[in-house]
UniProtKB/TrEMBL annotation:
Keywords: Chloroplast, Plastid, Ribonucleoprotein, Ribosomal protein. Belongs to the bacterial ribosomal protein bL33 family. It comes from the Eukaryota. PROSITE patterns: RIBOSOMAL_L33. InterPro entries: Ribosomal_bL33, Ribosomal_bL33_CS, Ribosomal_bL33_sf, Ribosomal_zn-bd. The keyword Iron-sulfur does not apply. One of its GO terms (molecular function) is structural constituent of ribosome. This is Large ribosomal subunit protein bL33c. PANTHER family: 50S RIBOSOMAL PROTEIN L33, CHLOROPLASTIC, LARGE RIBOSOMAL SUBUNIT PROTEIN BL33C. It comes from Helicia shweliensis. GO terms for cellular component: chloroplast; ribonucleoprotein complex; ribosome. GO terms for biological process: translation.
Amino acid sequence: MAKGKDVRGIIILECTNCVRNDVNKDKKSPAGISRYITQKNRQNTPSRLELRKFCPYCLKHTIHGEIKK
């Protein structure tokens, strides 16, 4: 039988480097924080998800962590 719809949830991943270091305060980089939207299976991954993604504001690959909605 099919499982409930709450198993796969939509999550938002946010750049941890931009948030911690306030990289976007200087005039050279555009303002903003890199965010990605994805899905995860809550039964297989109950803890917070962290993926290494490209941040267009830092101009390098950084760790993006799951944030609350």
